[in-house]
Amino acid sequence: MKTKPHFRSTAFVLGMLLVLFPVFVAAQSSGRVDFTARVSPTGGRPEPVRQMTFYLLSKSLDDIRTEALQFEPPPDLDKFVDGLKVSPQMKEWMKKRHSVRLVGGDFTKSLTPDDIVDVPEFFDAYMKRNSAFKGVGFPEPRYKEKDKTANPEKYKAQKEEYIAAIRKFIGAVPESVQGLDADMEDLNPFESWQHLVFAQRQQLEKKTIELAQQRYLAAQADTDLDGHGAFAGVAPSTYWISMIGTEAISGDVRLHWDVPVTVRPGETARVELSNLNATKPNTTADNSTH
């Protein structure tokens, strides 16, 4: 009779051990990440990143963004150019330069005499810009329209001579190209291209956030007023401390982080997030300058 309570007591203890042992093992095998985030404005002192959400991801945010590109690829510039109502020569020029920007000093400086003579839109704008200089050094045509049918060989030779003279004049007087872009405003497709690029970037960032949260999120934590945060009970592995869809701002500085950290069983990894290990805001597929 005295052995039964002892047996029951032993069975109870064994039962509790069986219940608690997995919890104990899990606690011993998991790790922890403590981090502090601070931003230093230019010429200023470090400031804590207060009450912002940080994410512990099982994949680098940059790699996740690359994965998202499979779902939201950048717009095709050549396809965009094919849809424009411009000359074939203009389309060829845009594809060769990989640019649809037809305004600004950099654009006009990039134009060669061959570009201006060979692309009808450039030639028309150039001639319109320089028509006032005829008689003061600018070439004048010798060919006559009546010769186009009456004497086509003479017409062709004199027109080619005139074009060659203009080509030579452009090379000798490069400043004559200045202001050409003012007559290209109605043809400039740059703004339409920018809209496409901006829309793709928005969709790409949306897909990146979706993948990060649905496939690769291990933990998340908010920083306190001192910029401290922690991820507890994390399985041993390599992770990345990241910000998703937000930036840490201080003065003229805007940062986010995608910092790797290794979590070991039963240990606490400590990470200092600062300007030194931050990355610049994403500028993936920066086609807006084309």
List keywords for this structure.
290 residues; alpha+beta; Immunoglobulin-like; elongated; disordered C terminus
Describe it for me?
This protein is of the alpha+beta class and 290 residues long. It has 2 domains: 3-71 and 194-277, Immunoglobulin-like, CATH 2.60.40.10; 85-188, no CATH class. The protein is 43% helix and 18% strand. The protein has 10 helices and 10 strands. It has helices spanning 3-29, 61-68, 77-82, 88-97, 105-110, 113-118, 120-130, 147-150, 152-172, 190-215; strands at residues 31-39, 47-48, 53-57, 217-222, 228-234, 237-242, 248-250, 253-255, 258-263, 268-273. Strands 1, 2, 5 and 10 form a 4-stranded mixed β-sheet that branches. A hairpin with a 7-residue loop joins strand 1 (31-39) and strand 2 (47-48). Residues 17-27 and 282-288 have low confidence and may be disordered.
DSSP, total strands: 10
Q: Tell me the number of helical segments per DSSP (H or I, 4 or more residues long).
A: 10
Give start-end ranges of low-pLDDT stretches.
Answer: 17-27, 282-288
Quaternary structure: single chain
Q: Which structural class do the helices and strands define?
A: alpha+beta
CATH architecture classification name of the largest domain: Sandwich
- Determine the fraction of residues in helical runs and give it as a percent range: 40-55%
